[in-house]
Design goal:
Length: 262
């Protein structure tokens, strides 16, 4: 990731991506007192909040995070929302913004691969039939809206495989994003849900809720990209934030929230 850094800060380039040292990030010239507005996919918000806290504890930077479904944030950015950077939950929407000339050249990075989980109450298993009597009827399975949330696409694919373990008919309930989808299960409005692992790790599960990680070969990889948008082209704080995201420190935070390296 071709991001500018002061000469005193060490970085390594692999596959065109700068993996910046966390030690050298916080002191970046001009960024420590700036401000930035960053669009963040809902599933990544716990990570972004942790990185924001790190930067703001060591600098006077003003970092604002706008959360939402990746598709919703994409639509807002396309309509001129003043986002300096976009931390997405997939690659497709940044592809589309790139084709429209809204992404700063050489600023894009694949920062993580997300995992999908099945969450619900009682005993869950992905290698034997689910007991519908233990869940109650009518059975509802919540998943993120595939038209808005990248995890919805993965959930729809995984649901095809999950069908083999559900011996009864069921209805689906769509959430706008992974957070809303998890809320449907947490509130009891759906007995089961397919959401991001980062969501269940970053949210109190509640009494009786459990989760199982969905096998990776049940769905397409959910590869996460981030980039500087044109509005943030001259914003050093936006670049600093993405450098922290792909740094060793950022990788550790991502890992603690269930993300795998790209």
């Amino acid at each position: 990731m071709a991001m500018s850094m002061s000469p005193s800060k060490a970085s390594a380039c692999r596959a065109g991506v700068i993996l910046a040292s966390a030690v050298g990030l916080v002191g970046s010239v001009h960024a420590s007192e700036g401000s930035t507005l960053i669009a963040v996919a809902s599933s990544v918000m716990p990570v972004a909040e942790a990185l924001k806290s790190k930067l703001q504890s060591e600098t006077e930077a003003d970092i604002q995070l706008a959360g939402g479904a990746t598709g919703t944030l994409f639509a807002q950015a396309r309509l001129g929302a003043p986002y300096d950077a976009f931390i997405a939950a997939d690659q497709t929407y940044l592809d589309r913004l790139g084709h429209q000339g809204a992404v700063v050249a050489n600023s894009r990075v694949t920062y993580a691969v997300g995992r999908l989980v099945l969450v619900g109450r009682g005993e869950l298993s992905l290698n034997r039939p689910i007991d519908p009597a233990a869940l109650g009827a009518p059975l509802r399975i919540a998943l993120p809206n595939p038209k808005l949330a990248p995890y919805g696409v993965a959930a729809r694919e995984a649901l095809v495989r999950l069908d083999a373990f559900i011996p009864v008919r069921y209805k689906t309930a769509l959430g706008t994003n992974v957070g809303q989808t998890f809320a449907l299960v947490h509130s009891g409005n759906a007995q089961l849900g397919l959401v991001a692992l980062s969501t269940v790790l970053g949210t109190p599960l509640g009494e009786g809720l459990r989760y199982e990680v969905v096998p990776r070969d049940w769905h397409s990889d959910v590869r996460h990209d981030a980039a500087i948008l044109l509005h943030g082209k001259s914003n050093p704080l936006a670049r600093l934030f993405l450098e922290l995201l792909v740094s060793e420190s950022g990788r550790a935070v991502l890992g603690s929230h269930g993300y795998e390296p790209p």
